[in-house]
Amino acid sequence: MAEKSYKYIILGGGVAAGYAAREFVQQGLQAGELAIISKEPAAPYERPALSKAYLFPESPARLPGFHTCVGSGGERQTPQWYSEKGIDLVLDTEVVEASVAQKSLKTASGDVYKYGALIIATGATFIKLSDFGTPGADAKGIYHLREVEDATALYEAIKANPNGNAVCVGGGYIGLELAAVLNMNKMKVTMVYPEPFCMPRLFVSEIAAFYEGYYKEKGIEIVKGTVASGFESNEHGEVKVVKLKDGRELPADIVIVGVGARPNIGLFKDQLTVEKGGFKVDGFFKTSAENVYAVGDVATFPLKLYNELRRVEHVDHARKSAIQAVQTIKAAEAGTSVEEYDYLPYFYSRAFSLSWQFYGDNVGDAVVWGAKGADKVNAKFGAYWVKDGKVMGAFLEGGSADENKALATAARNQVPVLGLDRQELLFLPPSSTV
Ligand code: FAD
Ligand code: NDP
């Protein structure tokens, strides 16, 4: 059991950690000042690759190919990069105890790490159906996806079940992205979700109808309005049947469960102020304790644009919040300051040859253009969310980089649309700034 001391520690080795490390280096870092402690065996990587290119049937992405910060066009930070910069990467190491008062972290093997400043970047963990007591939900062949080890296990299961039956439980990001990649691997895929249409937290029915139609044309079955109520396994404990609440039964060799994620806040939840499931931070990602910052999925931050506190579970915010926290730390050391975080929510997803982006807030009336009958090969359609005569959110499938930029501008500036009638807005070209 050892005790080590660092000026800065990043707890968690995911997306935010990789971008925070890069920012520390850019701002000026001495060798031995920074350690990253991560439960994962790999240096920080771009997690979005796991539900997409990692599972492709041909030339799947593998590490070290997608270490941060390649996802935003930056340098590929391999373990060698960290050692060259004098950053200690403490991998395969779970922190099991933390004391804000002592400024210390204790690992599963009993080592103690002391910090001057701490950045908590522990991300989130998938929710399991066994958390709700669904019978049989721990059977072999039921997969969740968060870390590279989960993706490797799933990849091997796909290869072991050519032309097998796969069931995706959940119609959110994981459900939609995994159904696509399983179909690309020639599995017979059925999606099951309780809502009337997929991605209900963001999509409206007209948008969802396009994606559901596209998936059905690819041969994916969609079962809506019911949930998985149990699983049956064979004598080896391998899942074989998904039982649905409406009485139907689906054959399954592989089941993917994507029913949401829960932020990893347990280590500090009695020591830091918690709100909306995450650590409450200010516009600089400072938590309620001095020199303790929280970024990425675990941070509940002031979303200045909408004057409310929000937690965001997407990669763009993980990157930007990490950068903001490091800039705050370094500015304080230099006796200067940085601007408060002023985030424009940005989400995206890719599946098959489809690719959509969304900026802003999906509040108010959704005005959808071009979705009905959209070409399935070169699909292009979008939506604006309009509230009090202003554009609040903007969505585009199949947009170019410039068009997506224009969308972001419209959502950021909350462009007034009072001069336009509904019909004009409906056919607004995506490259327009409204
Ligand atoms: P994470 O990247 O999850 O990193 C957390 C790290 O902390 C992990 O390494 C974890 O092992 C470690 N950790 C946790 N607890 C401990 C502990 N006690 N001790 C040591 N280490 C610990 N977002 C998008 O915008 N677009 C996408 O296309 C997209 N695709 C995704 C695909 C998948 C499969 C998943 C799971 C998520 C995807 N996301 C996507 C969401 C995005 O990846 C997350 O929002 C982002 O990774 C959050 O970054 P983070 O650093 O906060 O957490
Ligand atoms: P999501 O929250 O996106 O979606 C989960 C969906 O499952 C929701 O629609 C939820 O409904 C529904 N659901 C809840 N309980 C059940 C149930 N018992 N049976 C069936 N459906 C249920 O989570 P995911 O699991 O898809 O993703 C996990 C994490 O990974 C999230 O943080 C997500 O942001 C991230 N991710 C992001 C991607 C991206 O940005 N492109 C890609 C992949 C993952 P309800 O809303 O009513 O709870």
Give structural notes.
This protein is of the alpha/beta class. About 20% of the residues lie in helices and about 30% in strands. The chain is built from eight helices and 26 strands. It has helices at about 15-25, 80-85, 150-160, 175-185, 205-215, 315-335, 400-415, 420-425; strands spanning about 5-10, 35, 90, 95-100, 105, 110-120, 125, 140-145, 165-170, 190-195, 220-225, 230-235, 240-245, 250, 255, 260-265, 275, 280, 290-295, 300-305, 310, 345-350, 355-360, 365-370, 380-385, 390-395. Strands 1, 2, 3, 4, 5, 6 and 19 form a seven-stranded mixed β-sheet that branches. A five-stranded parallel β-sheet has the order 8-15-9-10-11, covered by helices on one side. The longest helix is centred in the C-terminal third of the chain and has 20 residues, at about 315-335. The N and C termini lie far apart (about 60 Å). The model has no long low-confidence stretch (mean pLDDT about 95). Flavin-adenine dinucleotide binds near residues 37 and 318. The site of NADPH dihydro-nicotinamide-adenine-dinucleotide phosphate has 24 residues, from helix 4 and strand 22.
Q: What attributes characterize this protein structure?
A:
434 residues; binds NADPH dihydro-nicotinamide-adenine-dinucleotide phosphate; alpha/beta; five-stranded parallel β-sheet
Q: Could you state the oligomeric state of the chains shown?
A: single chain
How much helicity do the residues have? Answer: 10-25%
**Shape field:** globular
Strand content: 25-35%
The largest sheet, given as strand count, sense and whether it forms a barrel, is:
7 strands, mixed
Overall residue-averaged pLDDT value:
95
